[in-house]
Design goal:
The complex is a heterodimer of chains A (527) and B (227). Chain A has 527 residues and is an alpha+beta fold. Chain A folds into four domains: 6-89 and 96-230, no CATH class; 245-349, DNA polymerase, Y-family, little finger domain (Dna Ligase, domain 1); 363-415, no CATH class; 441-526, no CATH class. Chain A is built from 17 helices and 20 strands. In chain A, the strands form four sheets. Chain A has a nine-stranded mixed β-sheet with strand order 8-7-1-6-5-11-10-12-9. In chain A, strand 5 and strand 6 (99-103) form a beta hairpin. In chain A, helix 4 packs across helix 14 (312-328). Chain A is elongated and about 105 Å long. Chain B folds into two domains: 15-153, Rossmann fold, CATH 3.40.50; 159-216, no CATH class. Helix content of chain B is 23%, strand content 27%. In chain B, the strands form two sheets. A nine-stranded mixed β-sheet of chain B has the order 5-4-6-7-3-8-9-10-11, with helices on both faces. In chain B, helix 3 (95-106) runs parallel beside helix 4. The longest helix of chain B has 14 residues, at 45-58. The two termini of chain B are 22 Å apart. At the A-B interface, strand 9, helix 13, helix 16, strand 13 and strand 17 of A face helix 1, helix 2, strand 5, helix 3 and strand 8 of B.
Chain lengths: 527, 227
Amino acid sequence: MSAATRFVTLWCPEWPVVAARLAPDEPAVVLRAERVIARNPAAIRAGIRPGERRRTAQQACPRLVLVDHDPDRDGREFEPVVRAVAELAPRLEVVEPGLLCLPARGPSRYFGGEQAAAELLVTTVPQAAGLPEGTPIGVGVADGRAPSAIAARLAARREGNVVVVEPGSSPAFVGPLPIQWLRELGEATPDLVELFLQLGLRTLGTLAAVPPSDVLARFGVEGAHTHRLAGGADPRPPVTRDPGQTWVVDHPFDEPVESLDTVVFVVKRLADDLVERLAGEGRVCVRLVVIAETDHGERSERAWYRDHGLSATAIVERARWQLEGWAAQPGALSGGVVLLRLVADEVRSDDGVQGRLWGGRSQADSDASRAIARLTGLAGERAVRVPTWAGGRLPDERYRLVPATSVDLHDPTERLARGEGPWPGATLPPSPAVVPPDPPAVDLIDEGGEPVRVSGRGELSAAPAELVTAGVRRRIVAWAGPWPVEQRWWSPERSRRVARLQLVTESGVAYQVGVDRQQWAILGVYA
Amino acid sequence: MESVTALSSLPPAAGRSLPVHEPLTTLLPVGLQRRWIVGCTGSAAMSLALAVAGRAVSEGSWLAAVGVPALGVEAAAELGVPLSRLVAVDAGTGPTTWAERIVAALDGFELILTQAPPGAERMARQIRHRLQAKGAVLLVASNRAPTVGCDLELASSEVRWTGLGAGHGHLVARRVSVRAGGRRMPGVARCDLWLPGPDGRLAVAETSETAIAATSDETAGLRRVVA
């Protein structure tokens, strides 16, 4: 514990609602996925709770103003705060919009102690950043990032808005806090917190008192993190980080670039490159510096920290916030960007927690997984399906739908690999966009009104002139075939010869029809 | 210098709209507006709906086909929808079950493709309410006029196939005339599309027939943007 680095954390609670710049006297909340994630003071006074559903919140407070969450807005609006802090202490790192931390040593020396430095931040930053009067803020100082983040959250609720935890006393500080803090800090899932509560672990101190090996055995790596946190330490020990090793990727532009989108696109490429190189060695980047320089010598440098590791998507998102904030700052940017550099200066081995995020699994992917689980619960396994490649020649045989729960949704390579072809007798693309699961029977008649038949040698009795479906006659203007296919037909237990035609009716709609035992049916509609 | 087209590989931003393939920008100048119900109608309705969804799905969005039992999966892939993010959901029987499953799908999918069952109009409000909250896009494919109120309708007509003759050849390419209009559009946009063209790709059919009928200044502005 003696070697722990002292950290200062600045926390702006309910940041999404501050960033939305809503009138302070009207109760207002920001919603994500139909649930309240941030409330303004008036909404807090009205009794709205975080995590509450839209409808219940509206029932509790009918004139509640609702705003949808916009992470880009949060990031953009936080930039002035970051700049204001950087004026006083340049070595800061942004954890997320509303939360930043910095090593305490420099500012503490410069401003005459940790308490003084923290008070200075509280008094000067909101004004310098142009935050509305009364915007809540908290500054905490403690051993390590996580304890200082807890201190900052408590500070935001206390008089003076500053909490300094003396060196070595982090365990005593966090011990009495309720276990629900793990959820608030985003370090444990609600399920895990619920489980801890059921086991009678009501405070962080009681969790810390459980032997670490038991926690690891029972709750895995995620449990071990929460255990370290509950003991007043950072969730991952510093020794797991690679000392002194930095990874750099950069991109010098041939000529100055003034389009933000272009710069962000290059960030995306660099981020992919960096993430891939690190992942190749089983590593994740937890602290990243994004640097951009213009041909006029202007420079933007910002450090970003994420304990779970920064995915390529997360890097692009943060770089965008940084660059947009830079561009929005009056007079900061007069030239075009000539250099872009990403420096991963804190890298550690990937311990598997959130590891799948690393492979580029996005928010959209996890949202979809959740919805798939819900739909499966609602409609049954057989009602929620994903395609797998089956091969075959008839339109309804090319792909088979299998229950989504039976496959790894995030590794579709195997189920969609088209394997060895070719499939003689399969029609060439384009394929019909409508493939009826039970091919409806139709009649095909020739110019004389006689049914079109296929002989044993696969020849048509006459050219088809009309397609008759449910009494409606459609004139055929073009056709080709028959192409024979010898395999099972639409009734799976039967195996026989099938012949198919493609045809276009006068309305322009194309069909693929098949014949079996002289009965025609629609196999596909090119609709 | 990076080219602008290379931006297409950016991850989808949580912006106001989902991206569409370049040939569709005459019809959808700003992409697919979140919270909208987009009807795809006419004799190429399903292909059009899949083509419209393609770009967003290839950039990370997930597509749920709810109540589309006859979905041509291979056609979806050919029209640019990566099958890795396509999920088919059985809509059960009746409009209530259909709506219930659409609403559940809206919780996690940014794109939903459906065919409205009889009686769907009664459930439209419930669906629209959730659609507004989630910021997804609902694509309704239908041969006839859509039964749920659409913000935008993409109507396909004048379908012409090439490659198939009187007893010879095979289907190769399709030309479709598409008209975009609706209560949320200031004017009407028209575009002839290859769906797909002889090379298998979605493309604008370049002829003198390709024209945009502008009925207001806004549309004229949009035309300048896409020109």
